[in-house]
Amino acid sequence: MKHVIKEKITQFAKSIGFDLVGFSDIKVDEKNFKFYKDWLKKGNASSMDYLQKTSPRKDLKEILPSANTVISLATNYYYEQKPLKQGNGRVARYAYGRDYHKIIGKKLKQLEAFIKTLDANAETKSYVDTGPILERSFAEKSGLGTVGKNSCLITKEFGSWVFISEIITSLKIKSTNKILKKPSSKKDFAICGTCTRCIDSCPMQAIVSPGTIDARKCISYLTIENKKQIPKKIQAIIKKSKRLYGCDICQEVCPHNCRAKENNHEEFYNQPIATDQLNLQKILAIKSDAEFLKTFAGSPLMRAKRKGLQRNANIL
Predict the structure, then answer these.
(1) Taking a C-beta distance cutoff of 8 angstroms, is the pair 150, 160 a contact?
(2) How many helices (H) and strands (E) does the chain have?
(3) Domain tally for the chain?
(4) Catalytic: which of 38, 59, 119, 129?
(5) pTM (2 decimals)?
(6) pLDDT per position as a tens digit, 272-316
């Protein structure tokens, strides 16, 4: 019966647009938790104070007391970007259209409702990039992929161009990871071998060691989460990168992304808002927060707010 439930969940998840589905127990990988704690201790989270909430990341029963299984899900979002036009700034691939948190969040609710049709007593809790859970660790544990030196989950099907989400559930479902190798006590990033392209290509040298991103140096953080003015020296580097919102460089240079393939999820692109680039003068011409909202409502660009996006446009 448990095997049947597992198959039904997998089939339904794929029918509503999830590309990869994996299952694992709720035990947190000790080496990954230590890696995360060390990352925080070194100040790499910068101003993202919400990341300091570590106890649920250590014990998922703080999130869902009845938790037994994590269902990890990955959704391909890759598309080929057009050449950047003169006077435009580059937008990270994930921000092309409607906010993926909303799109995937809706699918997660559908999947949770389906799970309850299989077992009326099942309890669930879902997240997409928003909860206090080491989601890449669980995705890795479930066999969806392996975390690389750029800190992204690398899948054999799509490279690293995937959104990760998860459902914590009370159901007991056997793990899908067939890797029997005894886990190492340290993160080894073996999937990358001796390759350091992501480390070498980062304009800000934000990958300070394999798998460790210092947000204080990361263009994605600086152009989105950071609400302060950016120092002149860093502005020059961002200007050269032509990145207006976010940054994909460490993924664009990754050899594993030779496996990237155009996604077939219309919902990410049938409502283009930011697209893959924006005209800098048009951004600077936005006169009010109300006008900014009218232009970018439903887009991930709302995260930077008008002030942040215009700051970035001024730099470029």
Answers:
(1) yes
(2) 13, 11
(3) 1
(4) 129
(5) 0.94
(6) 999 999 999 999 999 999 999 999 999 999 999 999 999 999 999
